[in-house]
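User: Okay, second chain of the day. Same drill as before: sequence in, structure tokens out.
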Amino acid sequence: RSVGGVGLGQKLTDCFVMKIRIAWIGKTKEPAIASLTEEYLKRISRYVPVEGLALRQEAALLEMCGRSPGTKGGTKSTLALMDSRGKELSSEQFAKFLGEYQDRSPLPLVFAIGGADGFSDTARAAAQHTLSLGKMTLQHELARVVLLEQVYRAFTILKGHPYHSGHQLGC
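Assistant: Same drill. Structure tokens below.
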């Protein structure tokens, strides 16, 4: 018998409910970007609790994650910055990253997209992960949509959904 998805004899701490926050610096200017953001947040919410957050500045991001100077109570989440200097992953590798995180951490996972000028050295030092969406430079609002699509794709890969049918590299 299970209660809330946890079987008898299984500890609650053995089953983490992954929470994802997608944070971005600055207001959304383009209605099309806002629409796509909402659509992908809705799709991702079928798999995990997810929240999209527009923040005024980088300091608000660091404070939210428990990483600003003078913050008490320690780390509140795991911070993954999206930065062109970060580690590149295939969609399958990104799905594996999310699956492993889901299995091992109770903390919310915050993916952050910087403003037009990217992130400061302080933010880079505060992050546990720095990931890249690729070598091409993307406008920051477009990068958000690409990240959201990849998060959604990752969960479809993990659940065996046909959205991602093992696309192969090649011409």
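The longest helix spans residues 140-159.

User: Thanks, on to the next one.
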